[in-house]
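user: can you give me the structure for this one chain? tokens are fine.
assistant: on it. calling the predictor now.
[tool input]
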Amino acid sequence: MTSPRKRIWGWWAFDWANQPYNTLLLTFIFAPYFASAVAPDPVTGQALWGWMLALSGLVIAFSAPVMGAIADSSGNRRVWLLVWSAFYVAGAAALWFAVPAADTGTIWLILLAFAVGLVGLEFGIVFTNATLPDLGTRDDLGQISGTGWALGYVGGLVSLVVMLLFLAENDQGVTLIGLPPAFGLDAAAREGTRLVGPFTALWYLVFVIPFFLWVPIKATAQRTTGAVRRALAELGQSLRALPKRKSLFAYLGASLLYRDALNGIYAFGGIYAAGVLGWSIVQIGVFGILAAAVGAVACWLAGKLDSRFGPKPVIIGCVALLMAVCVIIVGTDRSMAVFVPVADGSSLPDITFYICGALIGAGGGSLQSASRTMMVRQADPARMTEGFGLYALSGKALAFLAPALVAAVTTLTDSQRMGVTPLIVLFVAGLVLLTFVDPDGEPEFRCAPS
């Protein structure tokens, strides 16, 4: 039997393995590359990216809870994790074909490939999060979750450093250390940057192995016959019972809003820097290194605070911080920093955005880590997997909202800067709903403190 320490390390390995999809593809390397080099222009690129994320969010929202319920009913959770891993790897690897100034058909195929990988990432997270309560006592989970997220940030940081030093080229065709892309890759065809997709796929394949070897994935003894019908019936019962669980209902609503806003920051931060500040892929990568480094330390500290004071204070502090960051971003472009005009050529907007990157790294990871431990406190201990299925539903039920709002406001105003403003509203609404959340959940569903 695998030792408890080994199980925890295996669980942490999943965070390390999957983080590059967020760090390299969704935020710092591929997304800004797509908007600035693959799409016709940055504004069109941001809008197309937003609609792709909105549509993939809808797919995830309607299918994730159903797929999770089916897996619970059939008992084939490990098989489903392998399926989602295949989606992740195939979608990421296909991004190699995102050539500069691509034709319309290629652009749509690249967006589809990214969405497939994103579905694999999100569904995989649903299943792994549901195993968190099996790793320790309630009071241990905050530190386990926080350390896992910190290690994920470190994994994202290491992968980003490798990309910037040896592969991703700037407009002059060289990497951060002034060398051409490794392996004889063609800088003119942006092959160094395009390799980020296959690199992310390979990273996952290698580093996810300890998870499958060391983390026991409980299988149910239920019959596979009628699994879909049974799963849909159970999901319907859970949804109908939600209004009676006031604290859980408020928490799912709050997390729906603030997680959607956070995903909006991740999705459009690099695109914003490329289009509004004119940053190169290498500059955005440095921004990402700063965010990941600060985020790793912050997640580790937040995990300790979570274990000592509970997740709710950590969540509120992080939401307030990220809301302030959005205000700063809206007030910063080449002509001003935090709404204060600056001289032409001033580096103050760049410095301001680097600081925002550090704050996003600190607040974003800590928020997500504390959120999954809060879910453990809100869920019925006897039905934890179902609880995380609802958590996934809340995270994706309106996952299209932030990207759609950003895309719509960007299109209507023809301004990337104004396109960020809907995220502020989502954070505020999430804070309001958090006031109705009992930090320990309803008394009848509380796990006994250790």
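assistant: here you go. Residues 46 and 315 are 29 Å apart (CA to CA). The two ends are 24 Å apart (CA to CA).
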